[in-house]
Amino acid sequence: NYIHDLMDDAKCLEKLRELRWPYSRPNACPHCTSNKIVRRGKNDRHPGCRRYACLKCGKRFDDLTGTIFSGHHQPLRVWMCCLYLMGLNVSNRQIGQELGLSESDSQQMTDLLRDGIYKRRRVTRMQGEIECDEVYVIAGHKGKPEKIHGRLARRNRLKGARGRGTLEKEKPPIFGMIERNGEVRIEMLANVRQETIRPIIEETIVAGSLVYTDEYAIYAPLPAWGYHHKSVCHSSGEYARDEDGDGFHEVHVNTMEG
User: Residues 115, 160: contact at Cβ < 8 Å?
Assistant: First the structure.
C-alpha cells in the first residue's frame, strides 16, 4: 500500500475549501468575479468535489478550478502527500516510489507545486543594514555519468566559460540579499548587470538603508539609487573593516557569503 491510500479525498477537499473560501463557499466566480453563486452537485471524477454555477455569466466551476490541481488525473490526496514529502526534502525519485508514480509524473507534480509556491511568495522587505553578494553555480556533469564515460582523467574541475557567469553560459549567477538579524532573499539571474539587479534591490530594500557589498563595480550606483553604500575590497585581501574604532569590524559581506 502507498501512503496516500490511508488518506481521504473528501477531507483533503474540505481542507482545500477551508483555505480557499473561509466562509465555506466561493466568494467570487473565477470567470467573471460575480458573487451570485449556487451549488450544482458534485464532480463525478473527484468524489467530494463540489460543483458551482454562476448566475451572472452562467459558467460552472468546482473546488479545483483555478488551482494547479485542476485538469490532472491524480487525486487530491496524492498531491497533498507529494507536498508533504517535498517539505521533508525527499527527492523526486523517492516521492515517486512512495506514491506509486513514475519519475516523470513526480517531477511534473513537484515542478508545478514549487512554481505555485514561488509565484505566491511574500515579497521580503528589508531595511537597516543589508549585505548583497553574488556567486556563480557550476553544475558540471553531476548525475550525468554518460557525459564523462571513457574520458581521460583531468586535474581541473569543469570551469565553464571565462569571465562573469550567465545563465546562457550554464554558469548562472545567484544574487543574494540579507538583512542583518533579519530576512534573506536569494534569486537566480540570467546575468549580473545593473539593469538586472536594480529592480530586485529596489523591490526588496527600503530606500535609505545601508548596503554592504564587495568592490564589484556593479554596486557603484547604489548611492544614486537612494542607498548608503560601504564596501570591502576582496581583491586586495580585505574582508572586514572597523570604521568606528569600537573593535567590531562592521563593514563586510561575510553573512551573505556564509
Answer: no
Is the per-residue pLDDT at 192 higher than 70? yes
Q: What is the pTM of this model?
A: 0.62
Q: Which amino acid, 68?
A: I
Pairing label, strands 60-62, 228-231: unpaired
Q: Is pLDDT at 88 greater than 60 in this prediction?
A: yes
Residue linked to cell 534569486 = 187
Residue 144 binned pLDDT confidence (cut-offs 50, 70, 90): low
* CA distance to 48, 109, 218, 224, per residue, from 82 (Å): 20, 8, 41, 46
Instruction: With both helix axes pointing from N to C terminus, report the angle between 76-87 and 9-20 in degrees, rounded to the nearest 10.
Output: 70
- Cβ contact 174:187 at 8 Å: yes
